[in-house]
Amino acid sequence: MMYQIINQCLEVPGFEYKDGLRYIYFNTTGKKGGSPAIRELLQYFQNSTETNARSERLQRIHEHVKKAKVLPEVREEFMRLDDIIYYEREEADQNRAVQDILELLEDCGEVSEELKNRIKAQTDKETLRRWHKLA
Is the pTM of this model over 0.70? Predict the structure, then answer.
C-alpha cells in the first residue's frame, strides 16, 4: 500500500545519499503494508462514499468531499482518473471519426463549409459510424 523511496548512489551499491528527501507513494489497490489508518484512508480514496468513511476523521473529510464535488469549478478535479481517461478517449475517438469522414470526402472533391460544420457538430457515435461508411 505504501512505498518509501530515498536517494542512493548507483555507483556505490548500498550507499544511501542522505539528502533528507523521502518520497512516499501510495497504492490505493494495494493489500500489504501501511498502518490501519493509511489502509482505511486509501480504501476511502478508492471509493469515496459515506459507507467507506468509517472513522470520525474520514467522516469529516467526506463532508468536505461532498461539498467540493458539487462545485462546478472543482468538480472535474474530483473525477477519478479512469473517468477522465474515458471521457478524453471518447472525445478523441469522436474527433478522429470526424477527421476520417472529412478526409474521405475531400478525396472525392471539395467539401462545403456547411457540410464540414454539420459533420463537426455531430456527437452521436452511431451517426458518425454510418457517415463514415457512406463516405
Answer: no
